[in-house]
Amino acid sequence: MSEYIIKNGHVFDPVQGIKGDKKDICIKDGKIVDKVGSSAKVIDAKDKTVMAGAVEIHAHVAGPKVNLGRIYRPEDKLFSCTPTKGMERMGGGASIPTTFKTGYEYAKMGFGVAMEAAMPPLFSRHVHEEIRDTPIIDEGAFPVFGNNWFVLEYLKNQEIENTAAYCAWLLNVTKGYAIKVVNPGGTEAWGWGLNCLTVNDPVPYFDITPAEIVRGLMEANEYLGLPHSMHIHPNNLGNPGCYQTTLDTMKLAEGIKAKNKFGREQVMHLTHSQFHAYKGTNWGDFESGAKEITDYVNKNKNITIDTGNVTLDETTTMTADGPFEHHLTGLNHLKWANCDVELETAAGVVPYIYSPSISVCAIQWAIGLEIALMMKDPMRCYITTDHPNAGPFTRYPRVYKWLMSEKARKQQIESFKHKDKVLSQTALGTLDREISLYELAQMTRAGPAKSLGLAAMCGGLKPGMDADVAIYNINPDKPIANPDDIEKAFSRCAAFFKSGVQVVSNGEIVSNGNKRTLWVSVKAKENPQVARDINEKFVKYYSMTQANYEALGHHFVPNPYAIEVDATN
Amino acid sequence: METVTITMKNAPALYLEADTISPDAFAGKSAAQIAELPVFEGNVPSTLGKYFDVKGNAGATAADTKIVVKGDAQKVKYIGFKMTAGEVVIEGPADQYVGAWMKGGKLTVKGDVGAFAATAMKGGEMVIEGNAGNYLGAAYRGDWRGMSGGRILVMGNAGSDIGMYMLGGEIVVNGDVDVHALTHAEGGKLTVKGNAKSKLGGQMVEGTIIVFGSIEVMMPGFKPNGEVELEVDGAKAKFAHFIGDMGERHKKKKGVVVYGNLYKKI
Prior knowledge:
heterodimer, A: Urease, subunit C, domain 1, 7-stranded mixed beta sheet, 5-stranded parallel beta sheet, B: mainly beta, 4-stranded mixed beta sheet, 35% strand
């Protein structure tokens, strides 16, 4: 493989504590190394910013609900298609881009890893086929467990060992990465026309509460010692007053300690926290609960969060929280689709326009930024848009602009129709913090990598780590005159190396890289009871056989990267 | 106003996607420059000049530009695409998407047009002297934002699904219309001087339909609401009034529930 030396760049690497110093970065055989030979290709990064490849901790980029969105929103592709160009295949779609466009857009922004946030286990084959067709970036997928019949039955009797054995089996057969929980119990309750809006609402038939599901899955996660923690979208998403349910959910992590060999410290990752930080009793007195949420997370080190920033765009919402999407279509009267998955989950899809002239949307925008600015430790708060729910991931550079420039935030607030309401219902106007490039590297690289248990592999530029290196057209020695320059620089990196291969040059794709599928291979103790239960469920309930369930072989996961976990002790 | 006349000299074997035939794209260009404008024949990029003989230079702006299309444009799509001003006259028939996303100006077609004419039209005036195809003045596939302004006159008949998701503006059809007119409409007005078929105004939330002839099958979601006298094109007549679609949600304006209105001449 080629050798490279990136010279004279301003390096920002939280893993080594480098804060903009000029340092040469050497790449050899796909890894960062101390030095390279004299024949190494020299890349001049003078007056530029050098960071590790970014890590996406939560996005909906592959699988049945993403595809359902593509199918039922042909208008999303209207006037947004890009023709074949050089290395790039044709792409299309604004909020739900095609697989190829997804890979290209992430790479052009300097992302090396992205996690698909909700994989229905039954459709893991579909998820992996889409991941396979998304070029360049390494991807993993989180199977959903929070409404799964096995989990509900085991946890009703507090059988942590059996739950863990089932989770291990499911991660292995679906080639999954982590335990994802979406509206625990609520999506299943919807089968009875109900929902779970607090952590104590019982799930009909199963007679279990969300609190028991969440706590049980955290314990099972630590019992197995998985690289990532339980990753949760709590109950009561998006409703005024939901911050209380979020606090109740986070309190369930009290007393649980992280046990793993990957350097992960948290036991719960709270995702798209913006959607879970609402105070008020209705859309009229709707206000921010960002302070309450971040106060709690700042104090409790065993929790990490991501933001879920609203980007003020027309987008497509999609979540395994089926009842929420049904509720949303009743609010905005736009088309609704549902994708029920037997025994496991049910996702919904509804288009949504976050209009700057609607006060609720403007307040949601402010809450997402408040959360990022109120979090004291950038290693525990990551920037997401819950793509495509709060906005497309292609808007990350705009979110960075708002976080890095008070001037940009003020300009945006000034342009709102209901700016007084934004200022009275949130504290954004009082926050003068501006995220530094170093903090940005923590929030988009080192932080999410550590939370995912990938700290040894990516998110930093330490010798031995994968050579994911992004170079941006920002000179940290010079003050930024126009905040829009931040957005421009992060939209298209000057160069991006993925696992030591240059995939982007001057914002254009120059190679399709060597994309990998990340998954967690768990070696668990034999558990005859769980094996028998799985067999029985397939015979009695599933509409397919166990033999057709597994995502295996070259077709589904052509280039796997398995992270081994030994849970036999 | 300057006139550019384009005459078909070399008919395409495949359908021609010519979204550059609009006063906006022609504005400020000479005949030679216009001949160089890009088009697609099937999936192959080509130029306008390969198919059309171009005579005359365009005006400085779209508003100063008139385009006359002569010859057989039956296999040409997207004429007048996104036009904002000026004038287009198609002397014969044209294919799909004539005047799609049109915002202003005047577009006249002397022959028939294919489907999706005036898709999501926002403003301007369109006159079709022949017949219109399906989805005239409808929303783009999947979209819920249909025609929101402007006026369409069809002197012949129109096909099915016209005015789907209509939000505003007006469509007048002198002849008959096929099924599913003004489905999902939330505004706008359709006048049918001839006859209508079934599913007229299905899932309509707001808007107005006036039918002079017969309605083959009335939607069950429309409720009789007495008789009214209306003046259409200067002539007064009596109409049976229906409101609906009762199966849909309806907004309240100043405390009064707003329905879609359907008038049928008695």
